Amino acid sequence: xxxxxxxxxxxxxxxxxxxxxxxxxxxxxxxxxxxxxxxxxxxxxxxxxxxxxxxxxxxxxxxxxxxxxxxxxxxxxxxxxxxxxxxxxxxxxxxxxxxxxxxxxxxxxxxxxxxxxxxxxxxxxxxxxxxxxxxxxxxxxxxxxxxxxxxxxxxxxxxxxxxxxxxxxxxxxxxxxxxxxxxxxxxxxxxxxxxxxxxxxxxxxxxxxxxxxxxxxxxxxxxxxxxxxxxxxxxxxxxxxxxxxxxxxxxxxxxxxxxxxxxxxxxxxxxxxxxxxxxxxxxxxxxxxxxxxxxxxxxxxxxxxxxxxxxxxxxxxxxxxxxxxxxxxxxxxxxxxxxxxxxxxxxxxxxxxxxxxxxxxxxxxxxxxxxxxxxxxxxxxxxxxxxxxxxxxxxxxxxxxxxxxxxxxxxxxxxxxxxxxxxxxxxxxxxxxxxxxx
Length: 438
Ligand code: SAH
Ligand code: SF4
Ligand code: F3S
Hints:
The protein has 14 helices and 19 strands. The protein is of the alpha/beta class. It has a six-stranded parallel beta sheet, sandwiched between helices. FE3-S4 cluster (F3S) is lined by residues 13-14, 16-17, 50-52, 83-84, 167-168, 171-172, 203.
């Protein structure tokens, strides 16, 4: 008797893709697929791709090239391309890569079972619709078992902001919020199945408007769920941080003291050219208000260096903003011109100049990360334990401020939230000791 069909999914890019990959695995799970850890072991390989920077998109093509010998050895192997490259390039992928059997965009993957049937009949389907029906209505219920005590929940998709450099409004479409009742129901199911922490996801998560009030109200409603211990959300846009959401950081205990609030640049001229629609001073005022609500909040951000027209003075303004805020950590990228975006029409900054700026910014951000970690030493924080540590006898989890924390012992504490005294800061994590229960 043949065993179950085997599926390997690789996720590129953001956490929304991680969530979508889980939902795709569940959809194909209902068709009899079980997931495996390698392409070699699979009957079907699905690449859930990212189009944000040129490198990310090109990686997909090199990975597809690497699947060629597998497909030659096993002509029954099916290969699908999903996600944002699928949305952006559609049928072009089939032309460039004859080994690809199907292409499915981020808004139509609930149709995967039908597409697989078409593949079985020899077709090479492409579906990059933004369908009128809601894909979430057509996906199977969440699975009986989760991978660990933390879960993602997509509450909002798409983006209407059209920053001059960004492909997301094109690959993910217009902003759509999922209704509050559905989200509360999905969250309850996740908690019943073992989730203790939920991270709310959206391309502009704080633009959520799927019920009365905004994201602050949704967070307060989620906080009523017994057994749910922690709530986080990502990624937010500064212009959508409303008063109630800021207040929630002060009065909702389950909302963690951690916020990713991308600013991209500290220069007003560049912010304007990027169409970010706020100034550096407005961002700093916002940060001050958030810190007034929750003084120990750890802030992170994204930065782009070498945006077209960025001068030395513009870059120094970014360095000054970073100094002024003091981040817990941050991502920084060299600007990548993306097809179809307004900024791609403009003359680029020379690569050496951009490289040098990136290097300087990253050095400053690393110093801030180290300082933020060292400031935790001696403090007592909550840690939700997620898995055994890398070293024998260790267990690992995330602190309230989202630092990875390792402690000795406590193997039976996976899924448990305990107070931990931080004893040491290591390069990308903290070490601590569980404090005796009161
Ligand atoms: N919605 C989020 C960002 C999603 S993309 C927001 O508005 O903040 C994640 C990050 O990728 C962005 O914050 C930006 O720093 C970076 N990014 C996006 N497009 C880019 C490009 N063309 N070149 C380099 N970095 C880019
Ligand atoms: Fe891209 Fe800007 Fe939308 Fe973020 S807000 S996804 S950077 S267009
Ligand atoms: Fe990439 Fe699409 Fe996410 S472009 S960052 S996978 S929304």
